[in-house]
């Protein structure tokens, strides 16, 4: 049987419910521990959230901190790569307004690698493999040379000697 593990935002919603019911932070913490055991928020965290609720801040999501890096969705990065796969880490970082290392970690998380100056998925997607196979077939057909003539390179040493003799005679 699976055990339910609540997310932090879910537990914060429960804390807000207890705050509205005029329960104390300690009482709310006790109820959370009885219900969720080790998955409950700590007593200090409960007190911090009750302090936020008392200051009329009812937002349950974490606020962006000054030291935390800016978050950007992976879709933004994928769109930039769809536009131009040859962009460098520094170019992508400037566009997304984050550090190069952040972009590098995100690209690694997306399974992207750089080959010959282009970002591509480590494991090719079906549409990519289909277009690659189509291109290979197209270029392979141009390499096949057909015709009814056969060219043979023939080295005739007598003719070479004759051409040297003629050039010396005509030079005199």
UniProtKB/TrEMBL annotation:
GO molecular function: DNA topoisomerase binding; double-stranded DNA binding; histone H3K36 methyltransferase activity; histone H3K4 methyltransferase activity; single-stranded DNA binding; single-stranded DNA endodeoxyribonuclease activity
Gene Ontology, cellular component aspect: condensed chromosome; nucleus; site of double-strand break
Gene3D superfamilies, per database record: 1.10.10.1450, Winged helix-like DNA-binding domain superfamily/Winged helix DNA-binding domain
Recorded superkingdom: Eukaryota
One annotated GO biological process: DNA integration
Sequence ranges assigned to domain Mos1 transposase HTH in this UniProt record: 9-57
Name this polypeptide is given: MOS1T transposase
Organism: Pseudoatta argentina
């Amino acid at each position: 049987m699976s055990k339910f593990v609540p997310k932090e935002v879910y537990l914060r919603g429960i804390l807000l419910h207890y705050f509205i019911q005029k329960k104390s932070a300690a009482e709310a913490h006790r109820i959370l521990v009885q219900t969720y055991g080790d998955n409950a928020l700590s007593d200090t965290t409960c007190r911090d959230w009750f302090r936020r609720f008392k200051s009329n801040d009812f937002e349950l999501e974490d606020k962006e901190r000054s030291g935390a890096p800016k978050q950007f969705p992976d879709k933004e990065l994928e769109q930039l790569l769809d536009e131009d796969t040859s962009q460098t880490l520094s170019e992508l970082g400037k566009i997304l307004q984050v550090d190069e290392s952040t972009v590098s970690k995100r690209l690694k998380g997306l399974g992207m690698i750089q080959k010959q100056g282009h970002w591509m998925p480590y494991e090719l997607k079906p549409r990519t493999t289909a277009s690659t196979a189509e291109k290979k077939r197209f270029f392979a057909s141009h390499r096949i040379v057909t015709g009814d003539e056969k060219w043979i390179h023939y080295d005739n040493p007598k003719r070479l000697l004759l051409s040297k003799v003629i050039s010396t005679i005509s030079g005199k």
